[in-house]
Amino acid sequence: MKFFIFNVLMILSINCFSQNNIILKEAAVDKRVELLSIVYRLAGSSTYNSQQNSKYVKNIDQYFGRYRNHDLIKYVKNNLIKSGINYDAVAIMAISITQPPKIKGIFPITKDFPGYKWTKHKAKKFLKLLNSFYYDTNCELFFKQNEKTYKTVSVDFQKVLNGFDIKWYQNFYGQKSKKEYNTVINLAGGYGGYGPKINIGQTEVLYSILGVWETDTIGNPIFNTDEYLPILLHEFNHSFVNDIVEKYRADLEKSGKIIYDLFKDEMINIGYNNWKTMFDESIVRACVIKYMKDKNFDKKQIQKEINTQLNSGFVWIESLVEALEQYDNRRNEYADFDSFMPELVNYFDKISQNINNLIIVVNNKRPKIISIKPFDNKSVNVDYTINQIAINFNKPMKGGYSIYYGEKGKDAFPDIKNVYYSADKKTLYLDVRLIANKEYQFVMKGINFISIDGFSIKNYTITFKTIKTFDR
Prior knowledge:
By secondary structure, the protein is of the alpha+beta class. It folds into three domains: 17-221, no CATH class; 248-365, no CATH class; 369-467, Sandwich (Immunoglobulin-like), CATH 2.60.40. The chain has 14 helices and 14 strands. A hairpin with a 2-residue loop joins β1 and β2. The longest helix has 29 residues, at 337-365.
């Protein structure tokens, strides 16, 4: 592991911030990340099949749609995804290979490289097929066709980096080794965000890979700093946090399992399938809030970030931020974050014993569904001729909604014609068309059912069965 050449698809200038072993590269689109995202999109990965950046993903589907039966796509679909090589494993592979057209591992492929679920055999076969796919599809032509977009988003994202204090990371974590920070805009990534890193000689090369989830009225990506900066901060934090949590895995396991068992549904809902990942995310999210406090962000923006984490299931987030502030106030005792981790081990042990009280405190803040009209939830004798369902909350809502299939699936989902709120935002109306003698089910998810004070509902399932009350 002697050297590494990092080339991105579009860098408008060779200028970058560099000071005291810290290099911040300009935001850019990376061919490797786009290529692997396209491959996983064609293979059906739900993560890479978002329609958020609709104009660009339409270009992908039109250009590459006829290659869905390529040997690479079949291999990814039938072997890699099924064996769990998905999500961040895709990002890790992307930063571990050279830029096309000649794609190979930056270092020799072994059982340890690129690692994270990739076996030596699977990685080698994947790269062989990836090279074939790149040439068979003339992928370079697709990149050239979208070159203007890549240039535009690279320039537009720079405003998110303005004022971004990259030195905060090494000061806060107490790490002084040479680090290069790379911000990658993943146009085919949807909501996905990843924070992988790779060691190149004496330099740690860190990535914040960010999907695109906001566009203007004609489908061009837009980058709202309030939305993207917390995610940018989040992903870079992973390069510091994950390894330290891994180092203390044995000490954290007991409390981690206790807490995870209580929040398993919430964690799986946001893609976290084990207690270790939950702890990684807990600390990363608390560090984002710590950064925002250190940099004197608006109090409302900080509270919004706290509420977001509470709504996601991290009910201990506020006390964890307080623990991080204790660390920062006692740097004469703790030279670096690693040395403070035994205190966090004790913190999580205490949280695991007090978690039910925290759950009660947060749930008391959540909006609640107090009634459904004109029937009660789980009714089995609902008149099929009704054309409106009213759902009443105990406090005003912001006005968003997120309604999904339940366990009974698509067939049980009602035909919803319109969704809107009352003037006081305390009642949600669903205009529906129902049929007789049918069981219905839908789930109201907290992701968008948020009260005006910033708290989401607990996911709420509505089930009912219609009957035919009279002949027509």
